């Protein structure tokens, strides 16, 4: 198990020497093995470990289990915090209990990582979790992006066990006589995750005993297809690299339904499923409407590349001063700042586009930029001229009048940065 963990960490650059890593520990077998494995590898990798256990408060025994995990971490010499979350408050319409718990858990872990100055949060997902996720998506419907599965890294979260089978985890725990806690919800057939694990996969393994390996190979193929160039289908349709990257990002987020304009029609991305909607042949529009739409589309598509300190603007809109620097931030509170090593470069400046979304700094999810501007009471006439700072992968970083994005948040390890100031 340890050799697989080490290979995964190095192959996907999950951590760097000197990193302070927050390990999410539930007390279950996967997270117990994750913490112990990282403790063994920490001297070799140059890591400092912290731990956190999230108490969801959904079972009567959860508080006692969290206290047990806390004592085990302390006995192993690892600082640990118990994070209380309110899952009921996180649950909204069309959100399952498990999804609400996951969102609350990840939000609490991310907040604790910021408090401790940890650039990485290690989660205990295994190769079997990956296979189960892929099978679930196939049954429910997905495209090539959904087949990429659980990512090895999505800042600040990393998954060092993602190439380790569950049986290897259990063997590791047995050999080292490490105790762990069994969560009864893992066997509760009311939850889709439990049905996939205990019903679907065993049934399909009777047809193909190497089902899990086949699913993992499918996921690896999908990730290779998505790496670098857009998928072949996107190239064949003549999509721009930016449109393909936007579709891939939205599909990976699996949150809500969005439509992206592409050559020849549009792409609907709905909870990870990608569907091309071509324009009907012979479609005609009124000339005035066509001219107006063309002007708007051309302006929205214009992106000015930013590669040096200076003042930039789109057309006659508002200007944005961008300052590049190295070393410690001189005054972090003086202006919104971003860590360049955590962003896809080069950066660009463009106008607002319909459907733009951003995750505000400190927030737990993305929101429509139009809603953020309304909440910030930015007058409607002003919005059309606002400059939008974006990363090369389309991530919205900053718009005057609203909080900067969570993406690229600088910390004490930041050495290359930019600050932005509306002019």
Concise structural overview:
The chain is α+β, with helices and mostly antiparallel strands and 423 residues long. The chain has 14 helices and 19 strands. The N and C termini lie far apart (54 Å).
List keywords for this structure.
19 strands; Phenylalanyl-tRNA Synthetase, Chain B, domain 3; 423 residues; alpha+beta; 3 domains; 14 helices
Walk across the major sheet and give the strand order: 3-2-1-4-6-5
- Indicate the CATH class of the largest domain: Alpha Beta
Structural domains: how many: 3
Mean pLDDT: 81
Rg (C-alpha, Å): 23 Å
Could you tell me the CATH topology label of the largest domain. Answer: Rossmann fold
Rounded to the nearest angstrom, the distance between the terminal CA atoms is 54 Å
- Biggest sheet descriptor: 6 strands, mixed
Detail the poorly predicted runs. Answer: 228-232, 280-301
Name the structural class.
alpha+beta
CATH superfamily of the largest domain: HUPs
What is the count of helical runs? 14
Question: Can you describe what's shown?
Answer:
The protein has 423 residues and is α+β, with helices and mostly antiparallel strands. It folds into 3 domains: 2-214, Rossmann fold; 228-278, no CATH class; 302-422, 3-Layer(bba) Sandwich (Phenylalanyl-tRNA Synthetase, Chain B, domain 3), CATH 3.50.40. It is 39% helix and 20% strand. The chain is built from 14 helices and 19 strands. The strands form 5 sheets. It has a 6-stranded mixed sheet, with helices on both faces. Strand 7 (257-262) and strand 8 (265-270) form a beta hairpin. Helix 2 (29-45) crosses helix 7 (166-175), helix 6 crosses helix 8 (192-205) and helix 6 (127-140) packs across helix 9 (211-226). The radius of gyration is 23 Å and the shape is globular. The N and C termini lie far apart (54 Å). The model is unreliable at 228-232 and 280-301 (pLDDT under 50).
């Amino acid at each position: 198990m340890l050799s697989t963990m080490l290979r995964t960490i190095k192959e996907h650059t999950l951590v760097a020497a000197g990193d302070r890593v927050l390990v999410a520990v539930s007390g279950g077998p996967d997270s117990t093995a994750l913490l112990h494995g990282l403790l063994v590898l920490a001297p070799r990798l140059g890591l400092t470990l912290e731990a956190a256990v999230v108490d969801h408060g959904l079972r009567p025994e959860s508080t006692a289990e969290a206290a047990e995990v806390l004592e085990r971490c302390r006995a192993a010499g690892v600082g640990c915090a118990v994070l209380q979350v309110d899952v009921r408050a996180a649950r909204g319409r069309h959100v399952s209990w498990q999804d609400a718990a996951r969102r609350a858990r990840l939000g609490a872990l991310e907040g604790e990582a910021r408090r401790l100055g940890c650039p990485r949060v290690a989660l205990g997902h295994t190769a079997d979790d990956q296979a189960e996720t892929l099978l679930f998506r196939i049954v429910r419907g997905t495209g090539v992006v959904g087949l990429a599965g659980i990512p090895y890294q999505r800042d600040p979260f990393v998954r060092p066990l993602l190439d380790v089978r569950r049986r290897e985890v259990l063997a590791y725990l047995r050999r080292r006589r490490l105790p762990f806690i069994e969560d009864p919800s893992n066997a509760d057939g009311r939850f889709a995750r439990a049905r996939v694990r205990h019903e679907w996969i065993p049934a399909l393994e009777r047809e193909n005993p190497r089902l899990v390996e086949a699913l993992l190979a499918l996921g690896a193929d999908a990730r290779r297809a998505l790496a670098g160039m857009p998928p072949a289908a996107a190239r064949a349709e003549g999509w721009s690299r930016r449109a393909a990257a936007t579709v891939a990002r939205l599909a990976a987020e699996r949150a809500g339904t969005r439509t992206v304009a592409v050559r020849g029609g549009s792409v609907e991305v709905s909870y990870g499923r990608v569907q091309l909607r071509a324009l009907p042949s012979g479609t005609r529009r009124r000339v005035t409407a066509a001219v107006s739409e063309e002007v708007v589309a051309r302006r929205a598509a214009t992106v000015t590349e930013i590669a040096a300190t200076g003042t930039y603007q789109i057309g006659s809109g508002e200007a944005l001063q961008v300052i590049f620097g190295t070393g410690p931030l001189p005054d972090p509170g003086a202006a919104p700042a971003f860590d360049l090593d955590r962003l896809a470069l080069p950066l660009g400046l463009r106008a607002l586009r319909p459907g733009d979304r951003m995750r505000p700094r400190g927030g737990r999810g993305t929101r429509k930029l139009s809603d953020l501007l309304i909440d910030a009471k930015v007058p409607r006439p002003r919005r059309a001229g606002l400059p939008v700072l974006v990363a090369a992968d389309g991530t919205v970083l900053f718009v005057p009048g609203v909080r900067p994005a969570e993406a690229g948040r600088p910390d004490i390890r930041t050495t290359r940065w930019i600050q932005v100031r509306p002019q």
